[in-house]
């Protein structure tokens, strides 16, 4: 039986001009770890379950009765003909989900990524060479944090980096669906066409990349064509943007937390724990993971009905004082760090090894190249204060 209905709150956002986290997190975790939240007006008159407690978030992201909807499935379309579904690997379930994850085990496994790391470092150094030639000063987001994860993704997966001016606007429209839902949905047909054409190109001109591997798996009958399309769409809309946001947020945080940039610069043995701590500490994912209940679920005495949406707030769970001592302090040497940033169970991110390696390589390269890096006092970073996902849009620096 349900307890007293939880309050309905506005979607918490970080204070303007700041990384965050939203100030509501501690009270919600303490008083109402399972709340109801109003979604932005652009999404219509919809509410969702907003989960902020660590244990509750862990339970939600491991529950197979909760699945990722595509942007064409939730909120329900109000207009017909908004384009075909944008189904990525995250929204696949059942046999298709298991098959593609099995096919990606080696490609994104720890050993493969470890062998690929020297190549990543060369890509990072090449971008930083070009960035350094243009300054100081310079915008580290435009010059490095944005192109580096994209370049790595294209190189590893087999998506032509040279064609980014075509696919990036489409991918951004899909990724920004929380704010421009109709535009995001309309972009899907062109994204799908791009991926389908790319798959045919890999059949004609195979290469040593992940997409070619999946095309061979498809042609052998291990995967369906639609599953390979879903993987391509995953890479275009989610294979690099989150890493860009974490990288930009990480450098910003290291430069604004007194002494942290210098500490990591002078003690590289800290880099592995520093990466994990930055993943925990940075409040990038402020409730933008959406799951739909496939059947009624009881959570903390509340019944989540089939078809209702749940937002597990990973950034709030990662600041839970019941799990992380002194959670609002950045501790680059934090030894015990069971953060939730890569999900759990069926919702665990298959690119976790790659994301960790990208952050470590990128930070190491920046620290080596710019030991005296600093923020520009006369030109502060810019922010998108309307988005629940938060990172600097620009990061003016000197060196």
From TrEMBL:
Biased composition regions of type Pro residues, renumbered to the chain: 1-19
Q: Which Pfam families match?
A: p450
UniProt KW keywords: Heme, Iron, Metal-binding, Monooxygenase, Oxidoreductase
Q: Does the keyword Oxidoreductase apply?
A: yes
Q: Where is this region: Disordered?
A: 1-26, 380-399
Q: What SUPFAM superfamilies does the record point to? A: Cytochrome P450 (SSF48264)
What's this protein's family per the entry? Belongs to the cytochrome P450 family.
The protein's name in its UniProt record: Cytochrome P450
Species of the source: Amycolatopsis samaneae
